[in-house]
Design goal:
Blueprint lengths: L1 H7 L28 E2 L2 E2 L1 H4 L3 H28 L6 E7 L2 E2 L2 E2 L4 E4 L7 H11 L4 E3 L12 H5 L7 E7 L6 H19 L2 H6 L2
Parallel strand pairs: 3-8, 6-7
Antiparallel strand pairs: 1-2, 4-5, 6-8
Length: 198
């Protein structure tokens, strides 16, 4: 995320906490915001989590994160700029015992203004498997960050998943960050696409 932000000269707002402490991409009162079990693995720190302890995590971690995102977007829009919202995640190579072949996945909730051209560019620039709403689609009512900050403002958006075994070392991080950043730069140079995103 940091490499991509630097390449694009864009702000990068990082959660800096494991999603097992509090998942900032979930509604704070959702069961899976602090799961007791994740992919059949027990999370000891969450098994006996009290309502007060949960609220403390939300207040200390989730709310400041989302307030910062909202402030950056509001500032950009007030300055006359129309941001394109990029939410960056990593995912496991398997879930529920099933292998995930996609190296990069883009979720978009059917808003293809930017994501559609980006999928096309990625598939032209690389022969690695690229997921279109795979391994996740945009789960409205489940996912929080993109619906709350981008969709409510009518912003073009995409939610990116990098398979985490492919970004386990610095070379992998650099390779996949550069791959996505280059594709974004290519799409951003298309004036027709950018006009459609405004």
């Amino acid at each position: 995320a940091t490499i991509i932000a630097e390449r694009l000269e864009a702000p990068s707002i990082l959660c800096n906490h494991s999603r097992l402490v509090i998942d900032c991409n979930r509604y704070p009162d959702a069961d899976d915001a602090a799961p007791a079990v994740s992919d059949e693995v027990r999370i000891p720190g969450n098994g006996a989590l009290t309502a007060a302890q949960r609220r403390e995590r939300v207040e200390r971690i989730a709310h400041p994160y989302h307030r910062t995102i909202a402030a950056h977007l509001d500032h950009a829009i007030a300055a006359g700029r129309t941001p394109i919202f990029l939410s960056i995640h990593s995912c496991t190579s398997t879930m529920g015992g099933r292998f995930r072949p996609w190296h990069i996945g883009l979720a978009h909730a059917r808003d293809l203004r930017f994501t559609g051209p980006l999928l096309d560019v990625l598939r032209r620039q690389t022969d690695v498997p690229i997921g279109d709403n795979q391994p996740y689609d945009m789960e409205l009512g489940g996912d929080f960050t993109t619906p709350e900050h981008a969709m409510t403002r009518g912003l073009a958006h995409m939610q990116v998943e990098f398979r985490n075994d492919l970004i386990a070392d610095e070379d992998g991080v650099r390779h996949y960050a550069d791959l996505l950043a280059t594709a974004i730069e290519t799409v951003a140079a298309d004036t027709a696409v950018m006009a459609d995103c405004r």
